[in-house]
Amino acid sequence: MHKILSKIKKKIDPNLIIAIGVLIASFSALFVYIKQANIMSKQTEILLEQTKANSWPRLSVDTDINWLDQKLESLRIKVHNKGTGPAIIEGVKVSYNGEHTQNWSDLLSKTQLPDSISNSMSNSSIYNSVLSANENFYWVQFKNDPELAKWMYDKRSKITIEICYKSVFDDYWLLTISGENGFNTTQKLDTKQCPILAHEMFKT
Predict the structure, then answer these.
(1) Which of 16, 35, 140, 192 is most deeply buried (CB count within 10 A of its CB)?
(2) Stated pTM of the model
């Protein structure tokens, strides 16, 4: 038995032992590299999400109303970016009674504004605009004619505003304002494009 073991030991090539050792060391190094790569990938994803969170925009639409002796004098609609990054507005939709409108004049027409009330207003366009963090401005102001301001105030429950915007990282949100109290509802979208169709765009 001792002689047989001695013959087997003599037949084992030292180079084979070295090769096997190198192979084991290579597999160990490969395993460590894969593990490190997975950890680095997860760390990169976490860092990217943190960077995105620090650059998220958050739009809101607020209404400023001025009353004098219980009479409505003016109504102004303000757009405000309360987030930490720029808001890139890609779509705006304003509907009246569920029907989309093209601009403020079209909206006034759909409310059946009487000829006795002027349609005088001051407005700025937010379509295809960019609002930096903490930037705000008045989108439209009904301040020259109290009757027009009152008319729009009374019609507010039938008006729905939708604003689609994105961050610099192409994350999309849809802001919806509706109801008498003008509640703001913001939904983060899973898509990488604005859901508002071209023919529905409100361009002023």
Answers:
(1) 140
(2) 0.76
